[in-house]
Amino acid sequence: MIFLKAKIETSAGFRSVSKIIIVCHVYFKFNCSAPSFSTGSLWVKKLGYYQLQQPKEQADDWIIIADESIGIGQEKLLVVLGIRRCNIDFSRPLQLQDLKPILLKSKERWTGDDIAQELKKVKTQLGKIIYAVTDGGSTLKKGLKDSKIKHVYDITHAIAICLEKIYKNDVEFKEYTHLMGQMRFKKCCSKYAHLIPPNQRSKSRFLNIDIIVNWGVKVLKALENNDASNDEKKELVWVKEKEELIIEMDKITEVIRQLSVILKSGGLSNKNKRKCISILKTCKKGRMREFRKYLINYLESNIIHLKKRGEKLLCSSDIIETTFGKYKNEISKNLMTGITDLALIIPAFTSNLSEEEVMKAIDYSTVKDIEKWNKTNLCDSLSVKRNAILKKVVRK
Fold first, then answer.
1. What total number of domains does the chain contain?
2. Is the distance from CB of 317 to CB of 133 less than 8 angstroms?
3. What was the pLDDT predicted at 33?
4. Domain CATH for 105
5. Which among 62, 141, 244, 255 has the fewest CB atoms less than 10 Å away?
6. pTM
7. How many whole angstroms separate alpha carbon 256 and alpha carbon 233?
């Protein structure tokens, strides 16, 4: 129980958890031996396999959250998590323990037809699926359309796409980010390294635009309050020239924060729609007005899925992004391994880790069961392909 809780609820690696238990045994006199990292890994896989294989209740109010992972090579992992509408607590954001793992499968290339085929199996397993919350990926959208499941666009990705449309080709924004990159490159090893901007992630720049906005706001305040020396001001003076852009983006990120609090916790409803539109009224001109128009269109196009008065719509898939984040943290120790049966840690995250559930999971399956699941649901990993070609050289 100690090993599983430490592994599932923290970012520590398997070997680290094993060593932590050894240290605790030495200094706190724990009356138990420390399991090896391989034993702990098997326990996690068994827990994930148990969570995945448990029969899901047939009902007419299932909601699914789906996404594909992206890693090195062509392998992609398709994950589907589910929750019944009657079990959603709209007073807070979703937690992993609220969800049931429905599907975990990898392929070298997922097409819309492939996803539709899997989703039809999921429908047979669950009963009626009211709608699915996903990003705007074309293959996922086609899969949902072909399997006749309504699609609710994730609010986080919708906002990111909106910001990309507004700023991606904007000359002023491109110059601002270019100058940030130049400063980071030129000053990272100088005496002004403490001033350099944060790293800009090209793939998720518009999902995390607040990072570059916050840096700009802090620099403007430092210049205004004379918190910087004359030499430091010379290095940062270019930021002052972008003050109008930074202030505009700061206002937009504040609006995004307020909308996220309402929609990610409370869901999309007619009442929350009115609250959001009221907040968006502050976006009156220029690019802010364009942002308002896009978000109102998002609210209008998704609220049509409401069927009952007072109903709330789940419109955030952040929880599956969190799941992938935790999984990628685990495989980051050796990215070249690819997707292996360690992917079973994803359904393991949904366990409430009660003693009764853990004992059932450990006794539920064998190593052969996990190997069989691996062959059926996962394609050959990068390490398997590499070992098949780059075989170990036997020296005479």
1. 3
2. yes
3. 79
4. 3.30.420
5. 244
6. 0.88
7. 31
State whether 167 and 93 are in the same domain.
no
Contact 313, 269 (CB under 8 A): yes
- Cα dihedral value 245, 251, 256, 259, nearest 10: -160
Per residue in 145-190, pLDDT (tens digit) is 999 999 999 999 999 999 999 999 999 999 999 999 999 999 888 8
Q: Evaluate whether residue 395 is within a structural domain.
A: no
Length of the chain: 396
Strands 76-84 and 150-153: unpaired
Alpha carbon distance 315, 319 (integer Å):
11
- Of the two residues 390 and 275, the one the predictor is more confident about is 275
Strand order in the sheet with 100-107: 100-107, 76-84, 59-68, 127-134, 150-153
- One-letter amino acid at 387 equals N
**Residues 297, 167 within the same domain:** yes
200 contacts 181 by C-beta, under 8 angstroms: yes
Question: Considering 48, 63, 79, which residue would you say is the last residue of a domain?
Answer: 48
Task: Name the band, by pLDDT with cuts 50, 70 and 90, for residue 202.
Answer: low
Q: What pLDDT score does 96 carry?
A: 93
Say whether both 128 and 164 belong to one domain.
Answer: no
CA proximity to 103, closest of 59, 142, 62: 62
Task: Examine the domain organization and report whether 191 and 298 are in the same domain.
Answer: yes
Q: Are residues 265 and 333 in the same domain?
A: no
For the residues 34-47, what does the mean pLDDT come to?
93
Run of H or E including 232: helix 230-240
d(CA 109, CA 77): 10
- Which of 67, 142, 68, 147 is CA-nearest to residue 109? 68
Q: Domain limits at 382?
A: 53-152+317-352+367-389
- Whole-angstrom distance, CA of residue 107 vs CA of residue 381: 10
The SS3 of residue 137 is: coil
Q: What angle do CA 372, 374, 379 make, to 5 degrees?
A: 130
- The DSSP code sequence of 24-87 is HHHHH--SSPPPPHHHHHHHHHHHHHHHHHSPPPPEEEEEEEEEE---SSS-EEEEEEEEEGGG
Judgement on whether residues 67 and 124 belong to the same structural domain of the protein: yes
Give yes or no: residues 161 and 308 share one domain: yes
pLDDT for residue 7:
92
* CA 223, 229, 233, 236 torsion-angle sign: negative
357 occurs within a structural domain: no
Domain membership of residue 361 (yes or no) is: no
Whether residue 162 sits in one domain with residue 146: no
